[in-house]
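Prolyl oligopeptidase family protein, pasting as requested.
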Amino acid sequence: MTYRLSELNAKGIPSLLKNIENHEQWKEKRDGILRTWLRYLGGLPDPVPVQYRILSETPEADHTRQHIVYNTVDGDEVTAYLLIPAALDQKASAGFPAVLALHPTVAEGKADVATPQGRENRRYGLELVTRGYVVLAPDSITAGERIYEGHDPFFTAPFYEKHPDWTAVGKMLADHRQGIDLLCRLPFVDPGKIGAIGHSKGGYNAFFLAGIDRRIRAIVSSCGFCTFAGDPDPHRWGKRDWYSHIPRLSDDLNEGTVPFEWHEIAALAAPVPFFNWTGQLDDIFPHWQPASEALLDLTRLYHQLGAGDRFVSLIGNSGHDFPSPIRQMAYDFLDKWLKHTPVS
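C-alpha cells follow.
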C-alpha cells in the first residue's frame, strides 16, 4: 500500500482493520505488509551458527558482567555485555528469562543500558538483571565498540559502501536475531521466555525485531514509536549525512509518498505482548497526537485478535525519557508475560 503524505497529514492514520473481519484476512494483510517491509530493508539473510567468546568478566554485587563478542551473518562481530544474575549460582540448572536490552542513540552504546556509568533513566539492562533476568546488551553498528574507524558515532557511510543494497535497519535486525540465537544457546536461559526492551532507537528496534522473529515473547518500547503523519522530519528514516536508516525511503518521500505507515510495521508483532510509552513533550518525536491515533488503532487490532490484554499504551507529559515509574510498570509487564517472579 502506498500513501500520500499530504493525505496522511490531512485525513489521519489508515485503519489496520479496514475490510478485516477475521484472523485469516488479517494474516493476508500482515503478509503483504511484511513483504513490503522486507523489500525496503533489503531483505534479511539466513542466520549462521552463533559463535561467541568471552573477553573479560567483572563481578558486581548482584550479577556478573561478561564482555563478549559474537559473529554475524556478514562476517563482522557484535560486541556486547552479557549480564548474568547472581541468583543463577544457586539455580544453575534453571531456565532463566532473558531480555535483549537495546540501547538508544548514544555513542557509548551498550554501556549506557548495562553499566553503572550509564545515564539516569537508561540503565534498564542493569535494573533487569537485578530482577533476575539474563540480559544481553549489544552494541549496534556505529555505536560503542562498533564505531567505524575514522568516523564519528552513527555514521553509516562505511556500511553502505560495503552493502549498497542493504540497510542499517536490516543489519541491526540481523544482528539482533543472532543475539537471540546466542541467548537460546545458553543452558541457563529458557528460550521460551525472551523479551526485548529499548528506548528511542532501541525502542523501535524492539518491536521491529518482534515483527520478524517470533522468539521474542514480550516487547517494551519507550519513546520509539512515531508516525509519518505529522512528522516534521520524515526524512529522518531515509538518506542523511549521518545515520541513514532506510535510504530507499527518501526516493518515495521526495515524491510525497510512503510505502507504509509505522503502525503497520509495529502491527507485525501482534499479538506478542507489547508495552509502549510515549511522551507528549518528546523533542525527538514531537508529533504525539497522530502517534496516539495509531496506537489506538493497534489497540483495536489486538482486541480483534483476542489479545486485548497484551497491548499497553501509555502517554504522559514527559520528554524523550524513560522515567522510573514507567520503567517499573514496564518491568512488571515483562514479569507477567515472561512468567517471572522478580528477585526480592
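Note for the archive: The two ends are 49 Å apart (CA to CA).
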